């Protein structure tokens, strides 16, 4: 028996997310040969992830979150177990764009002559390389600490405004994205629009089941600072004073 188990570490929705990345302990017995795939789109670089030690087989992320690179490129890594399974595949992939064997050849991951697959987004890759170089200069542990301290400061400021954090347990809060319960009587769209119009700060509403119920605030990369937290706190305080509030 084989299969693929997907798990979130840093989902952009900013809902409940463990501070530690999912590990192979989630998997059934090793004899099932199940692969563990982890989404770290909004956490890579901002929260600890140990792919090898945690037994993650496929880890992917995005360039535009913590790395602060332009959107459009994605990072993905495969364990040896995942690579062996891909190369042992008997059926042709359904998707040309996600034919990993072909992409691996195009990326120079095997010893075979390279075969053209797509036009490489050269400018985006140079931007991503510069972002990774900046992260390497800062150091992963320093980046993790920066995001943790900034998020803890944000949580304290939000609670000081009388706002309620959507994720109750501090141990389950992702340090890069914070979800705040929309106060009773407010329309989240009014708050988001006011903050953008008057402070040039973009925050977002909830996604999926939390749509209309929460506000999402990102502290990603260069924005994970006390100065950014102070700015968004002032903007939120003013928005709550100026936006219409229903008494029903």
TrEMBL record:
<dbReference type="Pfam" id="PF00266">
    <property type="entry name" value="Aminotran_5"/>
</dbReference>
<keyword id="KW-0663">Pyridoxal phosphate</keyword>
<comment type="similarity">
    <text>Belongs to the class-V pyridoxal-phosphate-dependent aminotransferase family.</text>
</comment>
<keyword id="KW-0032">Aminotransferase</keyword>
<feature type="region of interest" description="Disordered">
    <location>
        <begin position="1"/>
        <end position="22"/>
    </location>
</feature>
<dbReference type="GO" id="GO:0005777">
    <property type="term" value="C:peroxisome"/>
</dbReference>
<protein>
    <recommendedName>
        <fullName>alanine--glyoxylate transaminase</fullName>
        <ecNumber>2.6.1.44</ecNumber>
    </recommendedName>
</protein>
<dbReference type="InterPro" id="IPR015422">
    <property type="entry name" value="PyrdxlP-dep_Trfase_small"/>
</dbReference>
<dbReference type="InterPro" id="IPR000192">
    <property type="entry name" value="Aminotrans_V_dom"/>
</dbReference>
<dbReference type="GO" id="GO:0019265">
    <property type="term" value="P:glycine biosynthetic process, by transamination of glyoxylate"/>
</dbReference>
<keyword id="KW-0808">Transferase</keyword>
<feature type="domain" description="Aminotransferase class V">
    <location>
        <begin position="31"/>
        <end position="231"/>
    </location>
</feature>
<dbReference type="InterPro" id="IPR015424">
    <property type="entry name" value="PyrdxlP-dep_Trfase"/>
</dbReference>
<dbReference type="GO" id="GO:0004760">
    <property type="term" value="F:L-serine-pyruvate transaminase activity"/>
</dbReference>
<dbReference type="GO" id="GO:0008453">
    <property type="term" value="F:alanine-glyoxylate transaminase activity"/>
</dbReference>
<dbReference type="InterPro" id="IPR015421">
    <property type="entry name" value="PyrdxlP-dep_Trfase_major"/>
</dbReference>
<dbReference type="InterPro" id="IPR020578">
    <property type="entry name" value="Aminotrans_V_PyrdxlP_BS"/>
</dbReference>
